[in-house]
Specification:
Blueprint lengths: L1 E5 L3 E5 L4 E6 L4 E2 L2 E2 L7 H15 L8 E4 L14 H5 L2 E5 L2 E2 L2 E8 L2 H10 L1 E2 L2 E2 L9 E7 L2 E2 L11 H8 L1 H23 L3 E13 L2 E5 L8 E5 L15 H10 L12 H19 L12
Helix pairs in contact: 1-7, 4-5, 6-7
The structure holds adenosine-5'-triphosphate and magnesium ion.
């Protein structure tokens, strides 16, 4: 098994010409810095949620997911990961030709979109109504793509700029799939007390057809807010990383590497939030999900 890429969170191996093995680690980043301590179980939570949504969205578009787990008989030793560790955090996926854009959908005004709106009254270059508040719900979900930077930060772009990068037809198809997947996800989540403020899909071509790839509607790719804490005019606590962010802010850390060592109670509180996000959204018990964390 050839190791072909490691991102901040995932380690990717090539199984054959057509298929990749995604192994999702327990690494966590905050303020764009990867912490030195893993959050045990986080990679299994992200994998479990992605599998949950892939099933929920099956009629919106194809996804890249072939199967959760490591294919029987595959020597994971080659990748220096034990079978029990790899089990619940691995996915076999179809290799896709990824679009060079990130397919962001925003239902609420937050993050970099709120910063832009405050500066110029626009969101990804398009005008918005005057007088909107931070975290306010947008008149309807909006497809707000960004570039997919290989180095540095992704840049927010307009739909027209995305169309110049991938072509009109492809950009329109990506917008349709992303909006529908967001609407489905947001509706499902709202019944469980969670607002999906925004999310980022990564789409790619598999056998010439546009498919949802990467992770799907996870706390790492989305802003999840507890619905009972949402109030326009302020930033609701994020569902997952808030205990970590609060602790980091309180230490006075400058948000540059190296990060401070995380105390066990912060690690545990963060793990609990990730697990709760999965259990609330899926209605399933994380205890039933396969694999171990070491
Ligand atoms: N089916 C697929 N075929 C090929 N590449 C894929 C597929 N699905 C996702 N990818 C790519 O695999 C990578 C996933 O790894 P990961 O999420 O760790 O890294 P990243 O998001 O690129 O970088 P980082 O998280 O460090 O910013 C991404 O580059 C993503 O675009
Ligand atoms: Mg990623």
């Amino acid at each position: 098994m050839e190791h072909i890429y490691s991102g901040k969170v995932r380690d990717i191996y090539e199984l054959d010409e057509d298929r990749l093995l995604f192994v999702t680690s327990d690494r966590i980043s905050a303020f764009d810095v990867v912490m030195s301590e893993p959050i045990p179980g986080k990679g299994r939570v992200l994998t479990a949620l992605t599998a949950h949504w892939a099933a929920q969205l099956a009629d919106v578009a194809p996804t890249h997911l072939v199967a959760v787990g490591v294919p029987p008989g595959l020597d994971v030793g080659a990748a220096a990961i034990s079978p029990a560790f790899a089990a619940g955090r691995s996915m076999v996926v179809r290799r896709a030709e990824m679009l060079p854009i990130e397919c962001i959908v925003r239902g609420y005004l937050s993050g970099s979109a709120w910063a832009e709106y405050r500066r110029s009254g626009t969101m990804h270059g398009e005008p918005l109504p005057a007088g909107m508040l931070q975290s306010q719900q947008l008149p309807g979900p909006v497809f707000t793509p960004s570039t997919k930077a290989t180095a540095g930060h992704d840049e927010n772009i307009s739909f027209d700029e995305a169309a110049r990068l991938v072509g009109d037809k492809m950009a329109s198809a990506a917008r349709e799939i992303s909006l529908e997947a967001y609407r489905r996800g947001a509706k499902h989540a709202s019944g469980r007390g969670i607002i999906i403020a925004d999310t980022k899909f990564e789409l790619g071509l598999i056998d010439g057809e546009l498919a949802i790839c990467d992770e799907i509607l996870t706390p790492d790719s989305s802003r999840f807010w507890p619905a009972d804490r949402w109030q326009p005019g302020s930033a609701p606590p994020s569902f997952d990383k808030q205990p970590l962010r609060d602790w980091l802010e309180a230490t006075g850390w400058e948000k540059m590497p190296p990060p401070p060592a995380l105390p066990p109670d912060v690690v545990e509180a963060t793990r609990t939030r990730y697990v709760e996000a999965y259990e609330r959204l899926s209605g399933l018990s994380f205890g039933d999900w396969p694999g171990t964390d070491r």
